[in-house]
Amino acid sequence: MGRSPTSWLPLLLFLGASVIGCIHCNPNYKEALVKSILFFQGQRSGRLPATQQIRWRSSSGITDGHLAQVDLTGGYYDAGDNVKFNFPMAYTTTMLSWGVLEYGKRLGSELSNARTAIRWATDYLLKCATATPGKLYVGVGDPNADHHCWERPEDMDTVRSVYSVSAANPGSDVAGETAAALAAASLVFRKADPKYSALLLSTARKVMQFAIQYRGAYSDSLGPAVCPFYCSYSGYKDELVWGAAWLFKATNSLYYYNFLKSLGGSDSPDIFSWDNKYAGAYVLLSRRALLNKDSNFEQFRQQSEDFMCRILPNSPSSSTQYTPGGLMYKMGASNLQYVSSITFLLTTYSKYMGSAGHTFSCGNMVVTSNTIKYLAKKQVDYILGVNPLKMSYMVGYGANFPRRIHHRGSSLPSLVNHPQAIGCDGGFQQFYYTSSPNPNILVGAIVGGPNENDAYPDDRTDYSHSEPATYINGAIVGPLAYFAGIYST
């Protein structure tokens, strides 16, 4: 059956009255934006500055790197634990940087806070890339020991093992992502701090060369130090594409363009995450085709649109499930990580399409920039409380939000209220296995989210739904800035 150019109307009906009929009752995107960036202060490792606003956190991990006789202090704990996994941390940094590059003008007064959040990560990633010639440090803290404890980061007494990749033990995935993060951040600081920007870019080039020259998955090199926590399930080719795409954007060097072309064959994803970067690279590179009318990048425009057709609910090639309440549903564990990352691609591609006056088709279904924008808005609004439970999945936003998140620092009393150390096992009985709300509110944290039926138990032992993560927030900052700019309150 053929469809008319108005074939996107069923999509609008799917999105529901919460989007179409709620023009005057949008969530407060600006407030959510402020809080989404503030969240990163709660994840900080290292010596905290006087400007720290999340006061229940204190300095931690201040001897990180000591076992390898290098300084690896700083960076972020990835989620509710006390480990620094560089693979998701670098992805978080890339997405935060992309958000600033795409939506910097809409960030307003939050631009400096976003830069600060990025720099907290890149200062650490620079250390990891330059501390020892021939090595890229990719993590601190034994994840298996850490996951057997429930203690504050300030009390950590588990071994702070140091993990690295090298020519003999390669990690093209983590190196490619680290290069992407440093290159993307170099663009963020190009005008604000040219000297720092130059350091980021020169380091990104070296790390990317390492990723290209010594090929292999870091999961194979490091085994139980990263698996099953952050295995590179999709392999490392997507990080080579992603890293090269960002270095091409930062340098305009034909070397990276030719390298992208040399990788041959393309993946056809219906997901975007810390593990699988293909769709992100396609959208990033499609900008050249849409806005610069550069035919050399047409393949990436086509691949971006193939991806969109797999996401849009009424597309004949859709492979994406939605909950009854309209939330994109990709996987049971921490589903909102996929929602936030894919939503970033939706808003960004919608923006490119709008600027170029471009439309495309999924079969006989005509897709406009608004088609994609409405779907993105539905996802953001759902996270902020426009859902069957009327629950905000951002901690500290709205009246009804998760109170028992799977997060050590949030669930245990602060040093101010409980100065005595809480040992490895000390936190379980009194603070983990209790129905009491967490004593510390991790403002801005977005949790893993509801299940496929829009249900959410608010149970800290149910980590797949109740655990926040840096990479969920890293991807949502851009869309929040986008909608804050459109629907200012």
Number of strands: 7
Number of helices: 19
Low-confidence stretches: 1-10, 16-24
Mean pLDDT: 94
* Secondary-structure-derived class: mainly alpha
Element-by-element helix/strand order: HHHEHHEHEHHHHHHHEEHEEHHHHH
Backbone CA Rg: 22 Å
Helix content: 40-55%
Q: How many angstroms separate the termini?
A: 43 Å
Principal-axis shape? globular
Let me know the largest β-sheet.
3 strands, antiparallel
Strand order of the largest sheet: 1-2-3
How large is the share of residues in beta strands?
A: under 5%
InterPro entries: 6-hairpin_glycosidase_sf, 6hp_glycosidase-like_sf, Glyco_hydro_9, Glyco_hydro_9_His_AS
Protein name: Endoglucanase
EC number: 3.2.1.4
Catalytic activity: Endohydrolysis of (1->4)-beta-D-glucosidic linkages in cellulose, lichenin and cereal beta-D-glucans
How is this fold's topology laid out?
Elements: H1 9-15, H2 17-20, H3 29-42, E1 84-85, H4 86-107, H5 111-130, E2 135-140, H6 143-146, E3 162-166, H7 172-188, H8 194-213, H9 218-222, H10 237-251, H11 254-262, H12 278-291, H13 298-311, E4 321-322, E5 328-329, H14 335-356, E6 360-362, E7 365-367, H15 369-383, H16 408-411, H17 426-432, H18 463-466, H19 470-486
Antiparallel strand pairs: 1-2, 2-3, 4-5, 6-7
Helix pairs in contact: 3-19, 4-5, 4-7, 4-19, 5-7, 7-8, 7-10, 8-10, 10-11, 10-12, 12-13, 12-14, 14-15, 14-19
